[in-house]
Amino acid sequence: MKVLLDHWSDDVQREAFDAEAELLARLSTHPSIVTMYEAGLAADGRPYLAMEYCSRPSMGARFRTERIAVPEALRVAVQIAGAVETAHRAGILHRDIKPANILITDYGHPVLTDFGISGTLDGAVLAQGMSVPWSPPEFFESAPHGGVGSDVWALAATLYSLLAGRSPFEVVGGPNSNADLIARISHDALPSIERSDVPRELERVLATAMAKTPGRRYPRMIDFARALQRIQGVLALAVTPVDLVEDVDPGAADDDRFGDVESDAGTRLRRVVTIDPLGGPSPGRPAGGGRDPAAAAARGSAEPGASPRTGLWLAVAGSVVVGAVIGGAILLHTEADRSGSEPTSAARPVGGIEGLVLPVVALAGHYDDAVGAVVFTWRSDPRDRSDNTYAWRVVDSAAGADQPAAAYAQCAEPRASVPAEPGTPVCIEVVAVHSGQYSYEPVRTCVTP
Questions:
Q1: How many CA atoms lie within 13 Å of 148's alpha carbon, on the beta-carbon side?
Q2: What's the CA gap between 25 and 51, in Å, rounded?
Q3: Which DSSP symbol is given to 179?
Q4: What pLDDT score was predicted for residue 290?
Q5: What does 41-61 look like in DSSP terms, one character per residue?
Q6: Residue 95 appears among annotated catalytic residues
Q7: What is the 8-class DSSP label of residue 351?
Q8: Which residues of the chain have pLDDT under 50?
Q9: Containing H/E element for 159?
Q10: Which distant-in-sequence residues (6+ apart) come within 8 Å of 421 by Cβ?
Q11: What is the distance between the alpha carbons of residues 167 and 181, in angstroms, rounded to a whole number?
Q12: Structural contact between residues 131 and 99, judged by C-beta atoms closer than 8 angstroms
C-alpha cells in the first residue's frame, strides 16, 4: 500500500494523484511494471494505491550482498528497459530508476515500481527526493532538467550496480557523501566494473548510455535494450525479448485486438485495447503477459476498509484514458518542447535499426613513411545513411580506457592521419555521426609502424 503523506493531501495534490493513477492504469498491464490493483481514499481522506505484493528480495536488497551473474543482470535490464520504453511512449518519465525500485515477483520476474509518483510533486520537492547515486549529471545543474536520456542513464547505472556490487561512482572505503558522488557523476570518467566475466563490449555500452552529455547517449531506451541484446548474443546467451505495448483501435476485430504481435527481432508487442473510461471493458484476454489486474481489482474491491473514489478505480486491464496529458504527471520534455519547434525524426537506416546511427566498418590503417604518420580509413555501414560524418580520437591502446580523455575530432571524410614513431603502436577510435547523434558503439583499431 502506498499512501500520500498528510502535507501532500490538499485538493491540488489529490487531483494530480488521480491523474497519475489514471496514467499508471495503462502502464500497470506491462509484465515488467508492478501491477496496480486499486486506488482510493483511506479513512482519514488520504489517497492510496494498492499494488501487488512482491515477496522476493528486491534488486536493491541483493546487489550489495551477492554476486549477481551477468546473464541475470542483462535479462533484468532488458526487461526493465521494455517497461521504461513503454512509459516513454505514453509520455511519462520515471526519474528514479534504481535497484531498490526493481522488485521481484513470486514468479521471479523483475517489475519496476514507483512509476511517476514523484511527478505529483513540485520541482523543488522532486529534486530533494531523487536518488543521487543513480542520477545523471543534468539533475545537478543549476537548472536541473531531464528527458529520455536521464532514464537511460539511470537504468545503465542500475545495471552497473548489479554487476559491480556498488553504485557507479561510489569509492569503496572512500568518502561517498552526496556531494562527493555529485562531483564524480558530473566530472569523472565511468570506473571499470573490474569483473573478469564482464566483457569490454558491455562496459562500452554502459559508457555510452552514461555519457555526460544526454545527446551522446542512446537516443531511446529501446536502443539501449538492443545494445544489451547484442551483448547477450556475443555471450551466446538467450536473447531476452523487449516487451512493448501497442495501442490499437477498439473497433478492430477481436483477433486483431488481442494477443502478442511479433515485431522486429527481439521485440514483443503486447496489444492493449483503448476503451471508453466510462464504459465497460471489451471481452478478451488482458495485455501484460497473463498478469490480470482486472481480476485482482475485483478481488480487492471486496476487501474491508476500501473506500473507492470516483475516477480512481483501476479495475480494467489495459484501460487507457485517451489523450491524458495531465499537469500532475511527469511528461517528456525535449529540446524541441523548450524551443517551441517540432522535433524531427531521423531517417530509417535501410536494413538497420530505426533511429540508430550504425558503427563504421572496415576501419584499417597503414604507416605512410613519406609523412611519418599512420593513415586510417573506414566507411559507413552500407545499411546506414549516406550523409554521415565522422568523429575520431586517439586512444592509449587497443585495450585502453573506455572513456579516453582525448576529445573527438570531427571530419567529413572517412580518413584520419596520426603522427607516429616507428615501433610505437597508434590506436584510434571512430564513430559515425548523423544530426549530432553518435553511433551506438565506437570502433577501434591499432597499427604499429
A1: 22
A2: 11
A3: H
A4: 39
A5: E-TTS-EEEEE----BPPHHH
A6: yes
A7: T
A8: 117-129, 247-263, 271-354, 398-404
A9: helix 148-164
A10: 449
A11: 10
A12: no
Contact 430, 442 (CB under 8 A): yes
Measured CA to CA, the distance from residue 161 to residue 389 in angstroms comes to 35
Q: What is the pLDDT of residue 16?
A: 65
Q: Which residue intervals of 165-306 are DSSP H helices?
A: 178-187, 200-209, 221-234, 254-257, 293-300
How far is the C-alpha of 329 from the C-alpha of 87, rounded, in Å?
A: 12
Distances, alpha carbon 62 to alpha carbons 68, 96, 350, in Å: 8, 18, 42
Max alpha carbon distance in the chain (Å)?
Answer: 87
Q: What is the pLDDT of residue 319?
A: 32
CA atoms of 449 and 440, how far apart (whole Å)? 30
pLDDT one-digit tens code per residue, 377-407: 999 988 777 889 999 999 876 444 444 456 7
* pTM of the predicted model as reported, rounded to 2 decimal places: 0.61
Q: What Rg, from alpha-carbon coordinates, does the chain have?
A: 24
Cα-based angle 266, 268, 269 (whole degrees, multiple of 5): 145
C-alpha cell at 180: 562527493
Strands 260-262 and 267-273: antiparallel
In the numeric block, the cell 475516477 is attached to 311
CA dihedral (12, 14, 17, 23) positive or negative: negative
| Cell 569509492, residue located | 171
Q: DSSP 3-state assignment of 426?
A: strand
Q: Contact at 8 Å (CB) between 134 and 154?
A: yes
Predicted local distance difference test score (pLDDT) of residue 398: 44
**Helix, strand or coil, per DSSP, at residue 229:** helix
- Name which of 410, 406, 403, 399 is nearest 432 in CA terms: 410
Give the closest residue to 230 by CA, choosing from 352, 110, 129, 136: 352
Q: Residue 171's beta-bridge partner residues?
A: none
Q: Point out the catalytic residue in the list 26, 95, 230, 291.
A: 95
Helix, strand, coil: what percent of the chain each, to 5? Answer: 30, 20, 50
Q: What are phi and psi of 41, to 5 degrees?
A: -115, 130
Can you give the pLDDT at residue 383?
Answer: 79
- Tallying the residues shown for the chain, one arrives at 449
pLDDT in tens, 187-211: 999 999 989 999 999 999 999 999 9
The pLDDT assigned to 439 comes to 81
Instruction: Match 552526496 to its residue by C-alpha cell.
Output: 178
Report yes or no: 83 and 97 within 8 Å, Cβ to Cβ: no
Cell representation of residue 46: 488520504
Angle at 29 between CA 299 and CA 224, to 5 degrees: 150
